[in-house]
Amino acid sequence: MRRVRDRIDRDYAKPLDVEALARGVHMSAGHLSRRFRDAYGESPYSYLMTRRIERAMALLRRGDLSVTEVCVAVGCSSLGTFSTRFTELVGVPPSVYRERAVTTDGIPSFHAKQVVRPIRNQEAPRTDAHLT
């Protein structure tokens, strides 16, 4: 499973799907998905999208690329899917995140990773929720 995770980490911007990952380790896609979820707590696709969103967050903080350019740069082929997944993980759409970009200059890298890491499994707080 580590080889699959390492391949996702390395090749996140390339077209990857579960079938291709499974062929690389001589497993069926279903078996790979079950084993990966057992090992890492999420599906290979979810892990891939999290890696893409993490990289997208860094590119959006730089501020020199449009949301569409970032979407393509991280390997997503659908702007809609990218925006939806970004919003699920980060809590705000990519365009809003870009406007509110958090700079990590001067922050030690281990703290910066905690500040900017996306939240998995739709745990991001809703920004439009009102408490009564």
Task: Characterize the structure shown.
The protein is mainly α. Helix content is 61%, strand content 0%. The chain is built from eight helices and no strands. The protein is elongated and about 45 Å long. The termini are far apart. The mean pLDDT is 84.
Secondary-structure topology with pairs:
Layout (H helix, E strand, L loop, with lengths): L1 H10 L6 H7 L4 H12 L3 H19 L4 H7 L5 H12 L3 H6 L9 H8 L16
Helix pairs in contact: 1-4, 2-3
Q: What attributes characterize this protein structure?
A:
single chain, 132 residues, mainly alpha, 0% strand, 61% helix
Give me the secondary-structure category: mainly alpha
Distance between the termini: 45 Å
Amount of helix:
55-70%
Fraction in beta strands: under 5%
Q: If you compute it from the alpha carbons, what radius of gyration comes out, rounded to the nearest whole angstrom?
A: 16 Å
What is the compact description of this entry?
The protein contains eight helices and no strands. The chain has helices spanning 2-11, 18-24, 29-40, 44-62, 67-73, 79-90, 94-99, 109-116.
